[in-house]
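thought: fold this chain, then report.
action: predict
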Amino acid sequence: MNNNPNQPKEFDGVLGGQVSPPLDGVVLGGLTGVKLRLQSTIIESRVAAVCEAINYGEAGLDLVIEALNDSNKEVQHFASKLLKKKGGVKAKQALLDYNPWIFFTTLQDWRIEDFDPEVGIINPVDTSYRLKIDWKKWISPARFPELFEIFIQDPQVNYIEALLLPLGRDISCEFCVKALVESKEQVTNLKALYIGDMYDYEYKTSNVHLSNMSPILEAYPNLEVLQVRGFGCDYDAGLSFHALRHEYLKTLIIESGYMLGCQVIDQICALELPALEYLELWLGNDELYPVWHYYEEEKYSFDDSAITNLMPIISGEVFPQLKYLGLRSSNYSDTIAKTIVKSSLINSLRVLDLSMGTLTTKGAILLLDCLRVKKLHTLNVSMNLVSKNMSKYMTKQLSQVNCEVITEPQAESAKYRYYVLTE
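observation:
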């Protein structure tokens, strides 16, 4: 066994290519060694080199950015992960230019695993733990506090980064919000949170009753992702936000099959979210249920949203850092298209998602005639009522300028435009 401390380590670059190094061979350390290992045929060596390169300032950062184009997906993954966490402004721009879907921070960045009280928390950093309850057996939320208490008492809970709280049919999320707010001193590292329906219904999302989400943002100032899915309106409660400033929220996703009322959109626009990059709103429609709300003894309706409510967003006035804008499941998709092609926000967007709505060929033409739309990375107009011929034409035209178009149509048998997502 050779105990010479000067011998090369596992991932050190050694002059002589792939042959075994001599006993007193020359080890290439520093940035030169990193560059040599990035050319290795051994995947593990390239991964290690990427991880080390980030420590060598601007030159090392350039090497990590170059590794995004490595032939191996594992190397690409480590490079994108490092750039996302440690790279700064230059790295974020490189990710955005390379692939916006890697740039965005969503719950997909964490591997989902059901929390098992018998096992506890094993991998708090890379895992999104799901507190799953058999809601068919437990009709009320009575058992949730038991499971949540076990979760909170776990010695690793302060390292948890992502948490999923799936709820059953007709359950209000208020008790989840309350439990999380009360546990803010234990769950100190939370970055991503999901509250909503336990099932990812394709056409229905209103089972869970949502509530005021601002207490979550106040309790968790380092939260980067908030995603809620359920019924946004109720007779005496419902989804709402009160005005606040949150420095680090990057992603806000609100999925509601029923309409997202103008009051809620106005409240969202009143939030100060300087870091927000990804905003997805399922606007819904008000044709199915007449919902009334009482406030200060005056009855008023939950009014359907309109383009005027969305103008602070579309104009770029409130969330100027947006790179993804999803205004989905809308009953005025053509109006949104007409407005957004004239806005300044379209100049900085990389992804525009108008899917699941009522976009017609007329709206599609407006998008196609906009020069800046042709510079998007992705345009999603799927599940609208754009004609088949127009869909093919859009795909052909935009693919020539490297813009990905998603154009899955609604059912051909449909006589009228319909909302893909309904109740």
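thought: worth noting. The domain at 107-406 is CATH 3.80.10.10 (Leucine-rich repeat, LRR (right-handed beta-alpha superhelix)).
final: tokens above.
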